Amino acid sequence: MLRRGLWKGTMVRILILRHAPAMPGGILAGRRDVDADCTAKDGLARIRIRIGTVPQIVSSPARRCLQTVQALGLRPDRECPELWEQDFGAWEGLPHAALPDLGPLSTAELALYRPPGGESFEDMASRVRPLLHELDRDTLVAGHAGTVRAALSLLVGHAALSFQIAPLSLTVLHRLSGVWSVESVNVTA
């Protein structure tokens, strides 16, 4: 049982939206700036209802994120380069079938693995997490699967890599006095 006054501060609700399905033409997009398929009007409408009203919207500068926010009838207050997807280096632009098999890696090993010329999950998460800590009011964050996993890593560490994150899905976290909790993960329309 919590004693009165133990939790001081303001509860911040952070809604993290993965963009609508990317249209990379069968290749690994990562940091490539590709369009989103925002034609699923019913799905967009249902996600928009789930989002409700938020006092602040921040977005990855990626075209697919900005297009998704616009398709929801919203506009970001600011674009944050920290929210870009993981840079997969030499793997970007490769067909999925051509990506190397890394063999059996633990989530901790996978989190530290850097594709040639790219960044590791941990590198990417290290640029996303400070932004999430700085948010001082309820916020919609428009980002990528990596953005969602980086946020989840605040609670579950590298095990966040085990989560499948669907396009046009919503994950909701709360922060109170520096303590994070999960309301929902990967909610789709």
UniProtKB/TrEMBL annotation:
Gene3D superfamilies: Phosphoglycerate mutase-like (3.40.50.1240). SUPFAM superfamilies: Phosphoglycerate mutase-like (SSF53254). It comes from the Bacteria. Transmembrane segments: none annotated. This is Histidine phosphatase family protein.
